[in-house]
UniProtKB/TrEMBL annotation, chains A, B, C, D:
<protein>
    <submittedName>
        <fullName>Dipicolinate synthase subunit A</fullName>
    </submittedName>
</protein>
<dbReference type="GO" id="GO:0051287">
    <property type="term" value="F:NAD binding"/>
</dbReference>
<feature type="domain" description="Dipicolinate synthase subunit A N-terminal">
    <location>
        <begin position="6"/>
        <end position="122"/>
    </location>
</feature>
<dbReference type="Pfam" id="PF16924">
    <property type="entry name" value="DpaA_N"/>
</dbReference>
<dbReference type="InterPro" id="IPR014215">
    <property type="entry name" value="Dipicolinic_acid_synth_A"/>
</dbReference>
<dbReference type="InterPro" id="IPR031629">
    <property type="entry name" value="DpaA_N"/>
</dbReference>
<dbReference type="InterPro" id="IPR036291">
    <property type="entry name" value="NAD(P)-bd_dom_sf"/>
</dbReference>
<feature type="domain" description="D-isomer specific 2-hydroxyacid dehydrogenase NAD-binding">
    <location>
        <begin position="150"/>
        <end position="243"/>
    </location>
</feature>
<dbReference type="InterPro" id="IPR006140">
    <property type="entry name" value="D-isomer_DH_NAD-bd"/>
</dbReference>
<dbReference type="Pfam" id="PF02826">
    <property type="entry name" value="2-Hacid_dh_C"/>
</dbReference>
């Protein structure tokens, strides 16, 4: 249980709902900031303005998944105005107060560094990235079905990159009956691809292998779907690029060749906000519990 | 090859395109009726009016997938006016001319009976139904992703009916990591479900098993998702009913209980017209080739 | 419950043990014949000689899985002498007494016909055949591993026949990462094979497809692995023939060509007698229960 | 091609055969030592005594998979006498000569250290360990089938450890229809297990989870299958311990409780020497080719 722990939740989207529910269940004291339009009963939670939060007593602050922008503003789907995280406000919190975010860009990172506050960009964690790969895969499947006139089954699919998301994509598209090839650059990844019954290709030799590709899914956050690859890709192929902005595809050239290439960020929050919220809720509660364990020892 | 064979294709949707391409490749002589807006080059094919077709010389007539309505009118996505199949016109064709349709309702069935013409409702064939189950499954997956806030993975899915479509659904949802239960009424089907690593339930005891169901997918063309089942289903569950109209769900009662129940007909033509067209093209060409084989022997 | 029901179990192998356990649990009255060396406590069961059984009171007689030989003798692993089922003895039982066996050859079949007794050859039932396919598959996997120097994974496996056993084999070898092709002669079976992500081949064209085959598994009880097929099979290939004696392989010619061809009957009883016994126990109890239901109505 | 490269292969088992074949194909010059009973034609290879090998000209030396014992002796299945690797002999080779072995114990490791020779224990490589996990899995499946009376399908299997071998085991037993749980201690491994549709358990809480376990497979080279775990394991369970000697099981206590616990080392060489040999052949040739690339530049 998290009884007695004080947590501020600031802004965010549908994913925050699951998180708030869970923290309530575990009996934390919650301050909901910039969430005034949020519906539902949350025992132990109160909707307040940022300046009303007892900042110096907080044990944790939970920011929206994308963190803050470069001026400190944060997204919220449940309030009219974007809240802002300022140095002045953050200076008040105690040094053990954990700051949770999905990802962290410069503003947030340097602010926490300066104030020596423990910042936890959850999406950097392998476990979170793997859990998140599940809704990501389903979002990708949905897009593949929506954007083609043929079935995934029996089509030629190439998954580029065999990291946390690539592994899940490869497994699922294979299970749906596609002819999957997966690319990697490490020998051990190529070995694992082979073990999974999938055809391994080296990311460097991608351009030689795409000639009969129907659907190309990229997870590599580097310009690997370049002119050379695009030149060999059939014009009718579909590209779904999952890598974080700006993706790994030369979109300009793809467009020139008339290839349908889609940059598809943030799929978990779009196709399965409940599941995505539960993933965050589960990891955050666990980390708060551990903290608790440490504190009491 | 189908050289010399004369075939009329009347109306239809995107699925006809693959069919026409294939028949051209195999060198049939084609009369395209009510398809004047169809784009593309089809060597050996000519766009004509129904009355211009040399009816008495035809070896085969290919109708739209849904056949005709009860007055003989047929759907077309590539013409301004719906063509009509009349007894007068059909009387002209020779008795060996095969009439292909997806499904056949009363008007078409009795017309062909009366004129003693060989009518082939392709969707009645097991092989066609099984091939078609593949795009049907993908359409169902797409709908499940679009209409829920959680992932298919780790959700409780019940597939009702274990026929040609049910088998494919069970396999695919299981492969995506759902906790699948599948229902049937034959002992041998329950045995096969078990062999596939899926939990079997008897269709008759459905109402006892739906309490924790997240997604219920029906394939039984009979009222099995009745009040008793719906009463036990969580209000948050999603129902996707694939059975031919009017489906197997008591939609009125589902609505009353606030359960989201969707009747989803014609998925293959919607999500994968290319694949769906190729399935028909392949079976029709094979049947024409066999006919040919017989004729020449 | 089966309280009051009188059942004789005559001879048999390890599979009978599970059956006897289950019937005891369900409170049947049991006469164990030619099972004197059977160890364990079976409440409600007594070990007796055939002539001591109150034949006229029996509700069911359970024979060994292979039934009787052509002189009426039955296998037993738990007695020194083979019991014999004679017309004289069987004449005593009442006409509603069910005779259970795995398979039935001429002697048994004509005896029951003559006496108008309900004979139930369990292996003829589709559900039993499907449940039994599970241990059959595992026995086949074991043999494939034992009799080759290479892995099943990534080897070229052909499954001949896509009936109750063939379907399970295809699924499992595919899941283990083999390159599986499966043969059938019905269009609908070829369609289902394709849907499963496996390469379909027509049984008639087998000889054209075996050139790179590493492991050939036959389930067709007809001479399909003939000289023509064997001529094209690599000499290093392994044949596992599961079809009932004499199998579907020309063993003489296989030997001549130096191909290792193994006839492998009775795998369920060998690799998983517990499971195989439970399958029979479950179906027999269910049938007895139904009978009971009928009787009491 | 490896033309001009001089390689000595000393002793070994069936796995060496594939290796030698491959090196011959690639046109290396081979000295086969303590392999006099090896059958087959190997163009470019000569069978010689250790002292006849032109040691100072060698580019690579390939030892048996287990390396040497603590006195330098090496296994051979194809000669009457075990060859010995001495410091005197090894002193002659040039400093760029690569020494390949499967695993390396103290004697070999310190000898190569002392002489500053590049020693390559192939089984330490992730790619080799993953490729090897494939025959290891099949050996484990074979043992599970041989040593139980029930099917893997529908049995409760626990895989302990989720490293290179554990991942492959989990995937394959799940695919065969077992109810698999897999244990790990890293959050990211638990996440991946969940993503694969398998139930994750923390290795530390193993003792709470084994109560209904039918088959327990250990891959952790540390004493994790301890008294506490064994006390909770059903007496009828089977333990297959794959971890390198002495395994992770308290075998003494298991025996006391009457639990069948099997230490099963070296499965790849036993069940699939061909495949195991090809894995080594492929990695060694690749490393020699790379070397070559470097040398020529
Ligand atoms: N669209 C969405 O909804 C969504 C959801 C989740 C993740 N993402 C994004 O998807 C991307 C992948 O996420 P992840 O969790 O799978 O990351 P990851 O585990 O780090 O995997 C990245 C993969 O890319 C490869 N890679 C990186 N740089 C490369 C280069 N220069 N050349 C070739 N290969 C390279 C990596 O190979 P090595 O292992 O050899 O480095 C690895 O296989 C990220 O950009 C992430 O932000 C998007
Ligand atoms: N929405 C779409 O896009 C789409 C696509 C394909 C098919 N469909 C429709 O989906 C339905 C199923 O197609 P299918 O090809 O799978 O048909 P199918 O092979 O005939 O399977 C029908 C299943 O329903 C069961 N069933 C039939 N009547 C029943 C009853 N009164 N009570 C309990 N179970 C009953 C059957 O059991 P038994 O075997 O025991 O009779 C069988 O398991 C059809 O209506 C078809 O038109 C829709
Ligand atoms: N060794 C063991 O331990 C073991 C265990 C279980 C079963 N069995 C034996 O294995 C065999 C198969 O059992 P099952 O339950 O799978 O039987 P099944 O369901 O009847 O399947 C038999 C298959 O063989 C095909 N077939 C039959 N005659 C054929 C012919 N003349 N030409 C081409 N194909 C033909 C059938 O095709 P159609 O459907 O088109 O007729 C079907 O695909 C039987 O002999 C059975 O006794 C052995
Ligand atoms: N019998 C055979 O034929 C055969 C074949 C191949 C391999 N093996 C043997 O099998 C074993 C596993 O091989 P592998 O390639 O899978 O190794 P691996 O990739 O290193 O995996 C070892 C696993 O054990 C876990 N582990 C290690 N020490 C632990 C501890 N003290 N407590 C809890 N977990 C611990 C690791 O967890 P972390 O990742 O958290 O450290 C990892 O999950 C080795 O001993 C290897 O020699 C045997």
């Amino acid at each position: 249980m998290l009884t007695g722990l004080k947590v501020a939740v600031i802004g965010g989207d549908a994913r925050q709902v699951e998180l708030i529910k869970k923290l309530c269940e575990w009996d934390a004291t919650l301050y909901l900031v910039s969430l005034e339009h949020l519906e539902g009963e949350f025992p132990g939670a109160q909707k307040v303005k940022l300046e009303e939060v007892p900042a110096e007593e907080l044990d944790a602050i939970i920011l929206p998944v994308p963190g803050t922008d470069e001026e400190g503003y944060m997204e919220t789907h449940f309030a009219d105005e974007s809240p802002r995280l300022t140095k002045e406000w953050l200076k008040q919190v105690k040094s053990s107060c954990k700051i949770f975010t999905g990802i962290s860009k410069d503003y947030l990172t340097s602010l926490c560094n300066e104030l020596q506050l423990p910042l936890i960009p959850l999406f950097d964690r392998n476990d979170v990235a793997i859990y998140n790969s599940i809704p990501t895969v389903e979002g990708t499947i949905m897009m593949a079905i929506q954007n083609t006139d043929f079935t995934i089954h029996n089509s030629n699919v190439i998954i580029v990159g065999f990291g946390r998301t690539g592994k899940s994509l490869a497994r699922s598209f294979h299970a749906l009956g596609a002819n999957v090839r997966a690319s990697a650059r490490k020998q051990e990844d190529l070995a694992r691809i082979f073990e999974m019954g999938i055809e391994p290709i080296h990311t460097d030799s991608l351009s030689d292998k795409v000639k009969d590709c129907d659907i190309l899914i990229n997870t590599v956050p580097a310009p690997v779907i370049n002119v050379k690859v695009l030149q060999n890709l059939p014009q009718t192929a579909l590209i779904i690029d999952l890598a974080s902005k700006p993706g790994g595809t030369d979109f300009r050239y793809a467009k020139k060749r008339g290839i349908n290439a889609i940059l598809a960020p943030g799929l978990p929050g779009i196709v399965a906000p409940d599941t995505a919220g539960k993933i965050l809720a589960s990891v955050i509660s666990q980390l708060l519990l551990e903290k608790r364990g440490e504190g009491s020892s």
